[in-house]
Amino acid sequence: MEILLEIGMEEIPARFLKDTLKNIENYIKKEFKDKRIKYSNLKTYGTPRRLILNINEVSLKQDDFTETNIGPSKKVAFDDAGEPTKACLGFVKSQGIDVKDLEIIDTEKGEYIGVKKHIAGVETKELIPNILKECILNINFKKSMKWGTKKLRFARPIRWILAMMNDELINFEIEGIKTELKSFGHRFFGSEFKVESIEDYFKKIKENNVIIDIEERKNKIVESIKSKCTKIGEKVLLDEELLDEVTNLVEYPYPIVGRFNSEFLEVPQEVLIITMQVHQRYFPILDENGKLLPKFVVIRNGIEDSENVKKGNEKVIGARLSDARFFFNEDLKRTLDSFVEDLKNVVYQKDLGTIYEKVERNKELAKYLLEKLDIKEIEENILRTVHLSKADLVSNMIGEKEYTKLQGFMGKVYAEKAGEDKEVALGIEEHYYPRYQGDKLPTTLEGALTGIVDKIDTLVGCFGVGLIPTGSKDPYALRRATLGIINVILNSKLNINLLDLVNKSLDIYEKKNILKSTREEVLIKVKEFIKQRIINVFTDLKYSKDFVNAIVEVDFKNIIEIESKLKALVTISKNDNFDDIINLVKRIENIAKNYQNTEVKEELLIEEKEKELYNYTEKIKIDVKENLESTDYNNYFDIILNSKGIINEFFNNVMVMEKDENIKNNRLALLKSIYNEFSKVADLKYIE
């Protein structure tokens, strides 16, 4: 048996389509599973005007089901004479059975009375109408609406519902909209048609110029652009996000090449590209060197070329590009420093002040960081980059909210036009990197350090005034900012003490009396937040999570050192004795975990093997200190690995829990002492 559902409606926003189809798929899969209906394949299709569900080889009836209901325990259900108690009779009555129908069922908790009921499956066709109706009623949209006098909320008004089981109509109704064996083709290049079977639907919908498969529409756009829209040496810039959006704006795509006045090319091509992509959903055309040509591709929702559509879009883009050129030229009449002054009038966040105040805090952090890193030669460049980093936010290009995607980039362009150092200009753009997962990272120290102090200020400030991410809500993108800090440090190999930087930021906020919680409370929360992001970054880099946990539980202030420690731990873990030494260390930890004293009294050392372990421990303390000071983590872990024999000898020959309290405590102190040496880089008990 095959099922088809098509929900016809006014055009829904492109961004809704894929999520809505996934919503339908998940709902139906759950319902079929809960109702024990088998099927072989389920597929969804969609256009802005219709949502389609197709299910193949649906079973004719539900699977039969045996239900087991457990009652009271056998001891409670029957008295000493074997007669049913009130508890037993109450259970029997609730199940609508006789005492003789009861079974004794073995469970983990013992013997209980119970009853097994065989429930025969009903025919699928009796269940399907309500399942499909409820599926429609339960579709969730980010935004929905009501229309007319109807109570149903949907993304856009529903105009028709086609529902079929093989070649028969599935009858149901939603607020006056009855299912029918008919559908509609393309709004302009199709017509209403009757549907005689599911096979007939797929044939006629194509004849009526609707491509219902999203991937097929997407591929048609790409192929038709390649075959119809470019000459030799030209390339259409196919942004994947825009391609997905355009695919879900049309039912049948047809590409048309338009042109604009080449005079607009005096504006930076990134501005023109953003204008075409974001505002008009056009695909720009580049030459073989990546330079923008005065041409674009617009995807028409139709089956043929149209001169009117071409001219209309050319007229619209001309007006858009005129605005962009005007904004750009007006901005060039001003200095970047004058833009910085205007930041005094732009509120960053009501408790954290203006963007100008944020920049001033960033400068103070940058001076501290430069001193710690001992970078003198580019200090002036770094501070200039910080000073100008937010200037373009009040430019016409960005401030008018038309080109917000270009923040940073426009700052770079204006800095170049003003004659700023090229590293400063590039740093202004790069301090926003990475903007999303997988984005590029800064190539300059100017961009890296400016970005780090900017993100640290944001993180500490938001936590300081209680703007802490919860669940999926993170309005100030603190997770992304923290991941950015970590990835930039790793990429730029910066030897930064992250917690010192956090504390310096707290100093600045505390001095300005901005914190709404105690400094200690904010620090604890920020540290935990950073630690979790560090774990995420290194596990994403394919390091074992237990290795990462073992290291960050000891110390996570220096990202570069964490990476070095992890590499050393990975290397040593390949040794045949690694598992044995880990188990020995865990044994030491289990024995001595509640004992804090590490002062060992030599006069209380009686057994030869505990004396040997003591002498060994005193010796490796020197070696451990030297290795940690020189950050030679490979040698450090070698020390631990080479301790297997002497620790085994100790456990094989010495009773730790001696009856004499003094001797016992001395041995615990010895174990605690060696455990502490073994835990200065990684807490090995976390390693599985």
From TrEMBL:
<keyword id="KW-0648">Protein biosynthesis</keyword>
<keyword id="KW-0030">Aminoacyl-tRNA synthetase</keyword>
<protein>
    <recommendedName>
        <fullName>Glycine--tRNA ligase beta subunit</fullName>
        <ecNumber>6.1.1.14</ecNumber>
    </recommendedName>
</protein>
<keyword id="KW-0067">ATP-binding</keyword>
<keyword id="KW-0436">Ligase</keyword>
<dbReference type="Pfam" id="PF05746">
    <property type="entry name" value="DALR_1"/>
</dbReference>
<dbReference type="GO" id="GO:0004820">
    <property type="term" value="F:glycine-tRNA ligase activity"/>
</dbReference>
<dbReference type="InterPro" id="IPR008909">
    <property type="entry name" value="DALR_anticod-bd"/>
</dbReference>
<dbReference type="GO" id="GO:0005829">
    <property type="term" value="C:cytosol"/>
</dbReference>
<keyword id="KW-0547">Nucleotide-binding</keyword>
<comment type="subunit">
    <text>Tetramer of two alpha and two beta subunits.</text>
</comment>
<keyword id="KW-0963">Cytoplasm</keyword>
<dbReference type="InterPro" id="IPR006194">
    <property type="entry name" value="Gly-tRNA-synth_heterodimer"/>
</dbReference>
<dbReference type="GO" id="GO:0005524">
    <property type="term" value="F:ATP binding"/>
</dbReference>
<dbReference type="GO" id="GO:0006426">
    <property type="term" value="P:glycyl-tRNA aminoacylation"/>
</dbReference>
<comment type="similarity">
    <text>Belongs to the class-II aminoacyl-tRNA synthetase family.</text>
</comment>
<dbReference type="GO" id="GO:0004814">
    <property type="term" value="F:arginine-tRNA ligase activity"/>
</dbReference>
<dbReference type="GO" id="GO:0006420">
    <property type="term" value="P:arginyl-tRNA aminoacylation"/>
</dbReference>
<dbReference type="InterPro" id="IPR015944">
    <property type="entry name" value="Gly-tRNA-synth_bsu"/>
</dbReference>
<dbReference type="Pfam" id="PF02092">
    <property type="entry name" value="tRNA_synt_2f"/>
</dbReference>
<feature type="domain" description="DALR anticodon binding">
    <location>
        <begin position="586"/>
        <end position="675"/>
    </location>
</feature>
